[in-house]
Amino acid sequence: MITEKDLQILEFVWQYGSITINQAYQMFFSNAAFGRDMARKRLKKLNDIGLLNKTILAQGLTNELIYYKERPVSPHKLILLNLYAALKFYGAKINEFKMEYKVGNVRPDAFISFDYKDYTIIAFVEVVLTHQVNYKAYEELKNTGQLQNELGTFPLLVVIANNPEHYTGKNLKVKYLDYKLKNIHQELLP
Q: Residue 88 class from Cβ within 10 Å (0-12 exposed, 13-18 middle, 19+ buried)?
């Protein structure tokens, strides 16, 4: 039997491409006793009845099972989805989450807007696996004033990397997270 949570999981996979057991736990089962086990069982059930496929990414950062419909997402996108799930886990309400967002000459890996407590946070997200962040392009975008007019502020820049090149200028507000997002609560949530 398909449950309401199963439908929520499937909707997430249809929209974003894949899900891991930990992501499912953080978004849909975090309040349940044995929530991680429930997430694992529901994903296995969806796989067993043919609604989801599963694999382990050969070039992934972890050995997690990834459940997907058509093809698994890249390690890059997997990290973005980990961020999405972690924010939900800590109680953020996601207003907007767009991967491969493009504005002007800048193409961040994601654009996210979320509410947490009494704050709305708007951010660009860059996952650094190979190439470092082009901070100059973000400074040029900020200097246009385009986003400040549209959004009322220039988005925070969130860099996810284990060894990032740090921003040395004073124009941008930048926060750094590691791949495991261990410091998300201290760095990103007010």
A: middle
